[in-house]
Design brief:
With 625 residues, the chain is mainly beta. It folds into 3 domains: 253 residues, Porin; 103 residues, GMP Synthetase, Chain A, domain 3 (2-Layer Sandwich), CATH 3.30.300; 216 residues, no CATH class. Helix content is 10%, strand content 46%. The strands form 4 sheets. A 12-stranded antiparallel beta barrel has the order 1-2-3-4-5-6-7-10-11-12-13-14. An 11-stranded antiparallel sheet has the order 21-22-23-24-25-26-27-30-31-32-33, with no helix packed on it. Strands 15, 16, 17, 18, 19 and 20 form a 6-stranded mixed sheet that branches. Strand 21 and strand 22 form a beta hairpin. Helix 3 packs antiparallel against helix 4.
């Protein structure tokens, strides 16, 4: 367990590892450095000083590119009188040059590229290791990083406007690297793997904060000490800031790239059974129906002991085709490995080619072809790489004869639940808890009737007060009303059919209460060749608005803004066409273009990075008319 936690935690071991600043990015105290975390490191930081706290989630997207999402609480902020203001912002950093020899590392960074502009700033910073544990940093900044001790200007920096007008966030590239610029820098020294001491000269004047009386800016010099927690799992920091404030911070790290694949507590898979010399030539079993039936029965029973269902099978003298469903293993590769091992132990020795067709909702996916002799050599003779020897085909039209039917199948669960709503401008975190029951009835492999219902015990999500000034129908703005009136709810209740209309095609059609707020009919189709990086799809929905109590009724598709009294019609039809691309190294892109719930036309672009253990980290952005 300690080994697993150690591999999961750590950003960078040793004295020269990067540590996080008060913005939750690699840095000194308040200023950035040109250090980067190891690829795929995910960090969460909470800290602050005076009337200000910052919570930041950062991800090292690639070895050079990182992104951060920040949620800050600013008490008694001047632009909003005596109210507390909750600010959201995004940062991007890119490593222009790695440290090498006499050359320093250089990073270009943009803070608050999407947001209110409170933390807006840009910088170019360099960091050089002088000796083990000792680093020096210097940089030039604009915006917040160019407000104290200015060296000059690169032109007028446009104002971002009032906070309330841009509270939802806006991109303002016309401000980048414009306005006054200033120098910042500092030194860090780590005498050992645990402690790191920092001193910096800050170029942030904290103009708004000083104007509000929240802090005093007595000195541009900041000081800090970091303490690395056990096994590098986190960082605890104490700071002296602005010559007048004491700050503190906690950072925790993980890395999905180095986390193991879930599992390991289940029994190990069966060993591959080698065939005796000359056994592969024996075809006597092919003329004995009893032996054929016995082999199929033994295969089905042994797969069942592994938690895998045999859905169909064709057994020939040299080849076996099996159709299987895998309700147990999260990793499909793990399931395929166990299936192939079972086949070596249960099928006649003459069967050399194994073809395995995984089934999902009754649809054949890829057909995976593995040679039995490759498995034997890999386990009993010399280690060979199996994947290059495996062949993949579309499973459509390759389905074997059905085995004994085990349908219908019924599954259910009853458990407590906790729903969380975050980033509301009036309350950063709201929760709701209670009891939730779910069921799934697989009438046939392709026809699934499923649903969930919940009983709320406590929560304050219904207290959200939202005013909509967009002039669009209230398609999601009434979510708090649904939460307030739905103590006992049917969250969803639908009948779905899945099928393969043709080669490389996958389809779905669903009808019923599709989600908490809408019911109707939804249809989707996907075109995806097995070995292609590209896929295309389309989805169309006919919807009706559910009653607020989320039971069996529907209501009018006309919504009324409670403030303006304006009535708007929600369109009954919406849908999108989609394009998908696999960039490699776990990166997947998606583009959706079409009509959204409110009837607005636009597009959503998304990018995520998926890891071997099933973790996925991503982001998306939507623009509509």
């Amino acid at each position: 367990m300690a080994t697993l936690w150690s591999s999961a935690a750590v950003p960078q071991e040793g004295r020269d590892g990067a540590t996080m600043n008060l913005y939750g990015t690699p840095g000194l105290v308040d200023m950035p450095t040109a250090e980067v975390l190891p690829d795929a490191t995910l960090s969460a930081t909470y800290g602050g000083f005076g009337n200000y706290t910052r919570s930041t989630l950062s991800f090292q997207i690639t070895p050079r590119l990182s992104g951060s999402f920040r949620y800050a609480e600013l008490k008694d902020f001047p632009s909003l009188g005596a109210a507390d203001f909750y600010d959201r912002s995004f940062d991007v950093r890119y490593l222009l040059m790695k440290e090498s020899g006499w050359r320093p590392a250089i990073v270009l960074g943009l803070s608050d590229v999407i947001g209110t502009g409170i933390y807006s700033g840009e910088y170019v910073v360099a960091t050089k290791t002088l000796m083990p544990g000792l680093k020096v940093t210097g940089g030039i900044g604009w915006g917040r990083f160019g407000s104290d001790g200015t060296l000059g200007s690169t032109g007028r920096r446009p104002k971002v406007g009032s906070l309330t007008a841009v509270a939802q966030g806006s991109v303002t590239p016309e401000r980048w690297f414009r306005g006054d610029m200033a120098a910042f820098g500092g030194v860090s020294y780590a005498p050992n793997d645990r402690f790191k001491f920092k001193v910096e000269y800050s170029s942030d004047q904290y103009e708004r904060e000083v104007a509000s009386g929240g802090v005093e800016h007595k000195s541009p010099w900041n000081f800090g000490v970091d303490y690395k927690l056990w096994q590098g799992a986190g960082q605890l920091s104490l700071y002296s800031v602005l010559g007048s404030e004491v700050g503190a911070q906690l950072t925790v790290y993980t890395n999905p790239k180095t986390l193991g694949v879930p599992g390991g507590v289940e029994p190990s898979g069966l060993p591959v059974a080698p065939r005796p010399a000359g056994a592969a030539a024996d075809l006597g079993w092919t003329v004995d129906p009893q032996k054929t039936t016995a082999a199929q029965t033994q295969l089905a029973q042994t797969l069942a002991s592994e938690g895998i269902r045999l859905e169909g099978m064709t057994l020939e003298s040299r080849r076996a085709v099996v159709r299987v469903s895998n309700p147990r293993f999260n990793s499909e590769a793990q399931a395929l490995g166990r299936i192939a091992r079972v086949m070596t132990r249960t099928l006649p020795a003459s069967v050399e080619q194994f073809e395995i067709i995984p089934m999902v909702n009754g649809m054949a996916t890829s057909s995976v072809v593995i040679m039995r002799s490759d498995l034997e050599r890999e386990e009993h003779e010399a280690a060979i790489e199996i994947l290059p020897r495996v062949r993949f085909y579309d499973g459509f039209g390759r389905e074997p004869e059905a085995y004994q039917s085990s349908y219908p199948q019924f599954d259910w669960s009853l458990a407590p639940y906790l729903d969380v709503s975050v980033f509301d401008p009036e309350e950063p975190v709201r929760t709701e808890g209670g009891l939730r029951g779910t069921f799934s009835l697989d009438v046939t492999p392709n026809l699934v009737f499923s649903g969930s219902a919940s009983y709320r015990v406590t929560g304050n999500i219904s207290d959200i007060s939202r005013r909509d000034e967009s002039g669009l129908p209230r398609v999601r703005t009434d979510a708090p009303v649904y939460a307030a009136e739905g103590d006992e709810t049917i969250e969803n209740l639908q009948l779905a059919y899945y099928g393969r209309p043709g080669k490389n095609l996958y389809g779905r059609i669903s009808a019923g209460y599709l989600e908490e707020m809408y019911g109707g009919v939804s249809a989707e189709i996907l075109w995806k060749p097995v070995t292609s990086r590209v896929a295309f799809g389309a989805e169309v929905n006919w919807i009706q608005r559910r009653d607020y109590d989320q039971l069996f009724g529907f209501q009018s598709m006309t919504t009324t803004d409670p403030v303006s009294g304006v009535k708007r019609e929600i369109p009954e039809f919406n849908g999108h066409v989609s394009a998908y691309y696999d960039f490699g190294n776990g990166f997947h892109g998606q583009l959706d273009v079409g009509r959204y719930l409110a009837g607005d036309i636009g597009a959503t672009v998304g990018l995520d990075r998926e890891f071997a253990n099933g973790w996925s980290v991503g982001a998306y952005a939507t623009v509509t008319d």
